[in-house]
Amino acid sequence: MANFEEQATQTLFDKNYITGEQFEAIRAYRGLNLFSVHNELKFLLYLSMLLFTSGIGILIYQNIDTIGHTAILGLLLLVTLTCFYFCFKNHQGFKKEEVPFLNPLYDYLVLTAVILSCTFVGYLQFQYQTFGTHYGLATLVPTIISLFCAYYFDNKSVLSIGITGMAAYLGLSVDPKHVFENEMIDNTYLSYVGLAFGLTLLLWVLYTTKINLKKHFNLVYLTFSLHLVGIACMVNLCDDYWLPFGLVLAIATYYFYNLSFQIRSISLFIFTVLYGFIGMNIFFVRVLDSIHFDDFFSIFFFTTPFYFIGTIIGFIKLIKHFNKNTSDDSIR
User: Does residue 2 surpass a pLDDT of 70?
Assistant: First the structure.
């Protein structure tokens, strides 16, 4: 890494992008061997927030009969309102562009307040059935709170909670248990809901980009959209009416592939290639199965090792192509 930085600085100097004094100042600064602990501190803040919210949950579980429901709810509400008070007090207010806190500590305070709000509403419904048999409202209320806080306080983590809450309200379970049990595969209706929700998120990104509303949230929405569309299409490729979903997956792969270059997102690029590759193989097998080309399957199994070696080489070349086209031209 140090050699790369030195070469980049030398390249900037050779191309007259920086002066000799700037070049020497950069070398002197790097010679101090200073390093940033910014990421480490953010990780510790995030870990402390998780431990705090988890500790409250454990406290409620272990002392529910001793403390009492009213006292627990009152404590939760008090802590939540205190967190929100300091967040509102130290934020500049809602704006369409990115407006972060002056102190990043408050970002984690917002996340803590939202998680405690979800805990409060869930516990209220579980113990007192506040929303009656309308259990979806117990999910919808924290979702609305999360989305409001995400846009007001400009917090991507809270936005992820809000999108997850919307998915849960629609019946899409995102916890590991349901993922490993293939709930979407067993229930075709959920795959349709997932596809519709994923396309809706994509349309929302296009709309917010047009009106310049929190455009830095786009990657979060696009990531959820890609996963929902990709998984839903692959599920339905294994169903009877598979052809339309193959076309939808092909169009989505082409769109997200080009978009990943535009926004320079390696994660979006990798998952797009992955979903496209898996979907292409399923589509290819379904086509062969529909024309009853049985003789080809023996040839396919014989050439499978070479096929996977070729795909690995192709994937590596795609990664190199992505890095080449998204690298900073100023230091090349």
Answer: no
